[in-house]
Amino acid sequence: VDTLDTLVILGDLEEFESAVKLVIKHVQFDSDIVVSVFETNIRMIGGLLSAHILVEYIQKEANLMSWYRGELLEMAKDLGYRLLPAFNTSTGIPHARVNLRHGMKSESLKHSRETCTACAGTILLEFAALSRLSGEPVFEVKAHAAMDALWKIRNRSSNLMGTVVNVHSGDWIRRDSGVGAGIDSYYEYLLKSYILLGDERYLSRFNRHYNAIMKY
Question: How many angstroms separate the CA atoms of 168 and 165, rounded?
């Protein structure tokens, strides 16, 4: 799923069509497994949406894959709804993990508190695209709320972010900052969200963080 779009970039449309058919036939998300919200979003929802967009492009430009009727988008929407229970926190910052079938109902997930800044702040591109393609705004609303909550808990004197946060209280569990694992893609998504959505607040936030990183 994650690499469907690569086949189009490489120009192998025959293999892409075959791979899309395999995904539609064999991939399903009604599974009693605990997954990373962040990883499932960027790889599975992102992979499904990029492939969906490319199929529609190929239908229009190359007059191929006329059989396709938006199945990948429906799969992405199904998966998006399975991730939504993770966002039911007092801050709007999502839990790190969720069960695809049972949401947050297990005892271990109910009592989870910690997530990394990257995990919480690497949602908006896919969720906004999913909302705009499906016409269901809930995904984009949840992702904006998570980004706003993260921005509010930055260090106000330095504009730096910690790396691990309590999703219910909004308190930093790890206050050390940096640009590596656990925080890196939060910055990336600020800039890319401005590029994709044209929302100036994300460019402003990116620049303030960037200046703080260069200073400290």
Answer: 9
Q: What is the pLDDT of residue 110?
A: 87
**DSSP secondary structure string for all residues of 102-149:** TBT-SHHHHT--EEEHHHHSS-HHHHHHHHHHHT-THHHHHHHHHHHH
Q: How far apart are CA 114 and CA 123, in angstroms?
A: 17
Average pLDDT over residues 88-108: 96
Give the end-to-end CA distance of the chain in Å, rounded to a whole number: 39
Distance of alpha carbon 182 from alpha carbon 163, whole angstroms: 6
Residues in the chain: 216
Consecutive H or E run containing 99: strand 97-99
Three-state DSSP state, 93: coil
By the 8 A CB rule, do 5 and 68 touch?
Answer: no
**108 is written with which tokens?**
């271990």
Tokens describing residue 118? 């990257």
Place of tokens 């892409």: 16
Strand-pairing partners, residue 114, are: 166
CA pair distance 4, 19, nearest whole angstrom:
7
Give 140-150 pLDDT, tens digit per residue.
999 999 999 99
Q: How far is CA 109 from the centre of its chain?
A: 20
Q: Considering the entire predicted model, what is its pTM?
A: 0.96
The tens digit of pLDDT for each residue in 108-144 reads 898 999 999 999 999 999 999 999 999 999 999 999 9
What number is the average pLDDT over the span 12-29?
98
In angstroms, the CA 69 to CA 18 distance is 15
